[in-house]
Design brief:
The chain is of the alpha/beta class. The chain has helices spanning 2-91, 94-111, 154-164, 167-170, 190-198, 217-221, and strands at residues 117-126, 129-138, 142-148, 178-184, 202-207, 211-214.
Length: 222
């Protein structure tokens, strides 16, 4: 009787031990699968990281190429602007080819001016006396007198200021508007710009050979 009971308990113990071994093996296999999946995931993440690094390097190269292309285009545009300016200087068409086309955007930018009238090389004659202005532009409450020189000198600033004093004498139709004087050229020396600023005359020329601009707007506004 006791032997039978003992055998039964041994069988139960063996059964429990087998169940424990089975569960342990099952857990071990699950851990092995998880480790394998983690290893695979780690490998995929490493590959993804390498792909991202490669993509980043490609984008960097592309960005550098675009910057290089942009610089080359800027240099090419500057070269063309110089050639066009030299040709206009030789042909005597600085007003028509360089200054006049830039007036509308420049006056809009700096003076909030929607040009109503724009004329080039306007000649007025009163009592046999001629008075010619290279360009005239008008807005609601402003009139612009634009004088242009191919090679600007400090003395030109004084001459333009003196000439401007008689503007309304020859253009009485613009009386009541504020007269704004612009001295236009291809390029302008620093001493000319400084002298013009002191006399409240705006200087218009190429800015870094990229676009026509007012070079001393802030100086005069101060």
């Amino acid at each position: 009787m006791q032997e039978t009971l003992l055998e039964k308990r041994v069988d139960q113990l063996e059964q429990a031990l087998m169940e424990l071994i089975y569960q342990a093996r099952k857990t071990e296999m699950a851990i092995e699968r998880l480790a394998e999946e983690n290893k695979k995931l780690s490998l995929e993440m490493r590959e993804f990281k390498n792909e991202m690094i490669e993509f980043k390097n490609e984008m960097k190269d592309f960005k550098n190429e675009m910057l290089k292309f942009k610089r080359e285009q800027q240099e090419e545009n500057k070269r063309k602007n110089k050639e066009w300016s030299n040709l206009a200087k030789k042909m005597g068409t600085i007003v028509e080819d360089l200054i006049a086309p830039a007036l509308r955007p420049v006056l809009s930018k700096y003076f909030n001016c929607d040009i109503q009238m724009l004329g080039q090389r306007i000649l007025k004659r009163i009592k046999g006396e001629d008075y010619e202005v290279d360009a005239v532009a008008t807005c609601d409450d402003m009139v612009f007198m634009i004088e242009v020189k191919s090679t600007p000198y400090v003395k030109d600033v004084d001459d333009i200021k003196k000439k401007a004093k008689r503007f309304f004498e020859f253009f009485p139709e613009f009386k009541g508007k504020k007269l704004i004087i612009i001295f236009g050229s291809i390029t302008s020396p620093e001493q000319v710009i400084k002298h013009a600023s002191k006399n409240k005359i705006y200087v218009m020329a190429w800015r870094e050979w990229e676009y026509m601009d007012i070079l001393n707007f802030d100086e005069i506004k101060q």
